[in-house]
Amino acid sequence: MNIPIDESNTVQTDAGVKGGQNKCPKCGATDISLNVNTGLLRCNFCRHEFEPEKVADSETNLSQLEGTVIGSGAQDIIAGTDEVLTFKCGSCAAEVVIDTAEATQARCHWCRNTLSINQQVPNGAVPDVVLPFGIKKDDAKGEIEKFVSKRKFFAHPTFKKEFSTENVMGVYLPYMVVDINAHANLAGQGEHEVRRYTRGSGKDKETFYDADLYDVEREFDIVVNGLTVESSADKLDNKARNKTNNIINSIMPFDIENSVKWNANYLKGYTSEKRDTNVENLKGLVNAQAKDITRYKANETLKIYDRGVAWHKEELDVKGERWKAAYFPVWLYSYHQKNKNLLHYVAVNARTKETMGSIPIHMPKLLFISAIVEVVGFILWLATMPFFVFEDNDDNYSWVFLTLGFIFYALMYMRYRNKGARHYHEKETKSTMDNLRKEDVFVTTRTGLRKSRMEGANNTSVRGSAF
């Protein structure tokens, strides 16, 4: 991205907000919390419910976005910021201390009124927006139980003994949400298959392809709406050897359009994790993911190139970008596998119920069953050999039987561990394309090609994944 951070324009998203008492608009009580059933804030004294305050810039036309706009909650974290703040209770004038590293609310020890931190503190504890929990704990526990129950056969015995959904926790995790207005210019070559044929027979049989080669260019305006990345350095590390962070990444996307202005009352009854990365730390990742989204958006115009497109120029000129810090809700079950020092997660998106997890595997059992499958596959291979030999069948797939055990092992490992699970930002992030200019110029027909896909094709590559 080519807009330097020092040209940014900071928008004060907590303008006019004061820390202290958040009062019920009907009775003035300060004991307020989220009603998950309605998504509204509810006074726990008079039971009155009131609408959350929407984000002011939610209706902005992103195609007009220029420069770099940063929400005040996404500003750089200031090292050495005093995290312990003192507030004067508005009811009894007592002084109440809140450690923002641990919480954003506290009760007055004299009058028991709740005091909240709503103005932003430059330590990453208070974001611009929050997306309230929309799934009840019991529903999340049910989803996690269902996920685990389908994977108990090869689950480690200790895990099966210790597993309990009573350990499920609701947590607000920190994310950065980025809107982008850009202009894309891609140029390269693409191939369209015109003929497929075979030469030879039996073991010498080989498939060949003829394809038309074109010079291809695509130029268009693109708006990326709500590109979301983790803003916790720990959760960004999806290659960590001791944690299955990719599980948490995989339950995105969230319905960010329903985010509301930050209010500490949304956190009551839940835990939260502070943001510890700055915009500058995330620019490289966001840039790569924005190019992935652009590349996949261009694919909508490349249907004819069934053998792929090899781009040699991929330019993304960013005209405007907007960054907001956010808290998004997750129901999380964690389990520490001591013999491997590996922390497994089973996570539920607390808005959509999207569920993914990693289950500790009992490797001796999996290897034993895989060996049995391999033996069965070998027996089947022996039984089918006469058919392939005497029938002179050109499509000899008997080799599959010889690898059944390995295939079974790989499938079970992927099903339980889900090591490759991730958020498909290139497909799942909202984007729109306008002012498209297409150019397709025939070059030549290539014949006798041995591969089913074009050499060097990269139009479906993903470079912004942390895996």
How would you characterize this protein structure?
The protein folds into two domains: 5-358 and 418-449, no CATH class; 364-412. It is built from nine helices and 18 strands. It has helices at residues 137-149, 157-162, 233-236, 245-250, 279-298, 363-390, 399-402, 404-417, 425-428; strands at 8-11, 32-35, 40-43, 49-50, 67-71, 84-88, 95-99, 105-107, 114-116, 129-130, 169-199, 206-230, 260-261, 271-272, 309-337, 342-349, 355-357, 430-449. The strands form four sheets. Strands 1, 5, 10, 11, 12, 13, 14, 15, 16, 17 and 18 form an eleven-stranded mixed beta sheet that branches. A hairpin with a 6-residue loop joins strand 11 and strand 12 (206-230). Helix 6 (363-390) runs antiparallel to helix 8. The longest helix has 28 residues, at 363-390. The radius of gyration is 28 Å and the shape is flat. The model is unreliable at 1-7, 91-97 and 389-394 (pLDDT under 50).
Query: CA-to-CA gap between the ends?
Result: 21 Å
The helix fraction, in percent, is 10-25%
Strand content: 25-35%
Structural class assignment? alpha+beta
What sequence of helices (H) and strands (E) makes up the elements?
A: EEEEEEEEEEHHEEHHEEHEEEHHHHE
Using only CA atoms, what is the Rg?
Answer: 28 Å
Say how many strands there are.
18
Low-confidence stretches: 1-7, 91-97, 389-394
| Biggest sheet statistics | 11 strands, mixed
Number of DSSP helices?
A: 9
From the spread of the alpha carbons, the general shape counts as flat
Total number of domains? 2
Overall mean pLDDT: 86
